[in-house]
Specification:
The structure is a homodimer.
Chain A: E1 7-15, H1 24-46, H2 51-64, E2 84-90, E3 96-102, H3 108-118, E4 123-125, H4 126-136, H5 149-161, H6 170-173, E5 177-182, E6 188-194, E7 204-205, E8 215-217, E9 222-228, H7 230-235, H8 238-249, H9 253-267, E10 271-277, E11 282-283, E12 290-296, E13 302-307
Parallel strand pairs in A: 3-4
Antiparallel strand pairs in A: 1-5, 1-12, 2-3, 2-6, 5-6, 8-9, 9-10, 10-11, 12-13
């Protein structure tokens, strides 16, 4: 039993991340962003708050940080716009909320939570999602808020390279942020948010807002948030598959998480995921050269990492 | 091994369906629509065609039939518009394609297939999906094409009843069409299409276009198409769960399908699903009073049913 144990893990995306592409200044800022996100979530757990509150708070910090591809730092679509996806799920009730292709919501993860708590639905997209956001009184942001020079240059580079993958870092292409947590009441939760990937076609939705693909939580097993080539995580129904391998085949969290990442790799996709079980065990597998990630385990030990 | 065996199953939605609410004429037309859909799919399988071709053909017939809630007969949103969702998946490759909230595509299932075959993506929504449809040369329909008096009256009744569930038949509220098939090469496929439910909020997406929720196919296990209260099928990751129970726990198709429908019921949802395994076994479980359904099994035996 979890008996008051609590823990949290976060990610800020996986990809081809190498020290020679990241300046010391940016690495310091990335680590600071991860630390701040971890602390936002962990403080809630320490004070007896819910895992739902913790993962939303942790993701919100990363959405507000221009270095991560979600919210403020969302990448540009091929139309030079922003379309963001987010989801949240509670392990106790299997309640979930998600949004896709929202263009002007400052914090998509807050809208996903509002969908879960204030509508009978799970997934709203596009204008319908924004109409709901307006009713909920959520904060809208001017398109200019989401304009970061770094992301705009990434779009320019991709346009110039005509999407030749070899000339682009994964940083240019995609990224996602997410959090999973176990709270003192033994409840699991997961949250994920993304701007998709640079130069994506308008209207494309990836795995992030799809329950069971990029986001899943179930108190019987685990909470999962994924990052990487979304389409492969969708085909693998990756997040739910981690849970199913634990529940039906009796695998431990780390083995189930690794098995699913390997399946995604067999399909041709790359990426990683973060997962936590009801004992507070944490797994952070990825098969890229790096994944922005962090955790505070049940013993209170903090970890922040970027490279393999 | 499947060794040349082939079979197909279809559904046209599950709900509170009782003989006193359906005139003999309408029942005859409903049965004729199911028969025509079955035959369209089965003829392809008999002639050695693929399960993918078969399920798309079967669903297309139901999309063109105004009596079923997909394509032509799609229900109205609260805005008096139509927003359709569809998905298709191949069991051999785990390739999938899906669309959500498309408003003017005559056959959403054809667009879902085009997304699978002609884009690197799986799910497109709204205007982005329609822009892709235009590039693919798919047929658009005038909004008037989707206007059926029956569905308009359903919207009027719901508006008058202020969505008091007791005063409405499930027929008024929702419905979905779908098909699953095994072809002579041993490949499974699934396809699902829907107009959602009457008076839904614009922007809402249900389980139909979500891989693993309303639609799933995997040659290791089964192909599944679901119908019912979509949000509950999403939370249960229902279609993938049928597969996972077979693969990881060794359940037979019928037992896995029934277990998942029971889980959806435990969450508070109603509905049903159709499923087929790689031996051609078929399961059509539902816990409503009726489900429009049909099948042709590996022995060539035809079945069409409406009530329990």
């Amino acid at each position: 039993m979890s008996a008051g144990k609590f823990a949290i893990a976060i990610h800020g995306g996986a990809g081809t991340i190498s020290p020679d592409k990241i300046t010391p200044e940016i690495e310091r800022d990335l680590r600071a962003g991860l630390e701040e996100s971890l602390e936002a979530g962990h403080a809630i757990l320490r004070n007896g708050g819910s895992s739902l509150d913790a993962v939303v708070a942790a993701v919100r910090v990363l959405e507000d940080d221009p270095l991560f591809n979600a919210g403020r730092g969302a990448v540009f679509t091929s139309a030079g716009t922003h379309e963001m996806d987010a989801a949240v799920m509670e392990g106790k009730t299997l309640a979930a909320g998600a949004v896709g292709c929202v263009k002007r919501i400052k914090n998509p993860i807050l809208l996903a939570r509002a969908v879960m708590e204030n509508s009978p639905h799970i997934l709203f997209v596009d204008e319908g999602a924004e109409a709901f956001a307006r009713e909920m009184g959520l904060e809208f942001a001017d398109p200019n808020y989401f304009h970061t020079d770094q992301r705009w240059q990434a779009l320019e580079r991709i346009r110039q390279a005509q999407a030749k993958a070899g000339e682009l870092s994964d940083q240019d292409r995609h990224g996602t942020v997410g959090a999973v947590a176990l709270d003192q009441s033994g409840n699991l939760a997961a949250a994920t948010s993304t701007g998709g990937y640079t130069n994506k076609r308008p209207g494309r939705i990836g795995d992030t807002p799809l329950v069971g693909a990029g986001t899943y939580a179930n108190n019987r097993t685990c909470a999962v948030s994924a990052t990487g080539d979304g389409e492969f995580f969708i085909r693998a129904v990756a997040a739910h598959d981690v849970s199913a391998l634990m529940e039906y085949r009796g695998l431990k969290l780390a083995d189930a998480a690794r098995a699913v990442i390997d399946k995604v790799g067999d399909l041709g996709g790359t990426g990683g995921l973060i997962a936590i079980d009801r004992e507070g065990n944490i797994a952070l597998p990825f098969h890229t050269t790096g994944m922005y990630r962090g955790s505070v385990d049940v013993a209170g030990k903090r970890f922040v990492g970027i490279y393999k």
